[in-house]
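Hi team,

As requested, here is the filled-out complex form for the iron/sulfur cluster run. I kept the field names the same as last time so the parser does not choke. Let me know if anything looks off before we queue the next batch.

— J.
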Amino acid sequence: MVFLRFALKGGGSIVQGMSEPFYARGLHFTCRRCSRCCRFEPGFVFLSEEDLDVFTGGLGLKKTVFIERYCREVPINGNLRLSLKEKPNLDCIFWEEGGCRAYLYRPLQCRSYPFWHSNLVSPQRWDALKSSCPGVGKGRLHSREEIELFLRKRDEEPLINRR
Ligand code: SF4
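And here is what came back:
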């Protein structure tokens, strides 16, 4: 199951309520760099303008060149949303033997995983990630503040729709 590269069915938002979120005491996660989320199955890595700036600055490319070389448009709700391309074998366009070759410039979607609205709707949803990501539930404890910073950033950096 691809989860870092966003499967469209993985949407959703945090249920806001009076009670504390289940992650109020933080959540454990450390990426094991196994690459399971970057390869083998179809998925989308959507980009914001900020992501595009970091990518193009880091790689020294004009936006038009970067988009032509590395991006595709995905029809969603009548829009065309910008996503990274995949290779024919379904690996992310930036994945190569040894890992992500754009790791330093990776977009917020990748940097913020697994702390996405869609993964935090319930403890059950969070626990379900463990079967596909060996880093979830283990390693470093991320505080509620860290988690909510990621959530806020994702809200504040809208994804690029080209129509
Ligand atoms: S540990 Fe999880 S987030 Fe890290 S590469 Fe593996 S599947 Fe992806």
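Two things worth flagging: The chain has one domain: 22-156. The first strand starts at residue 27 and ends at 29.

Thanks,
J.
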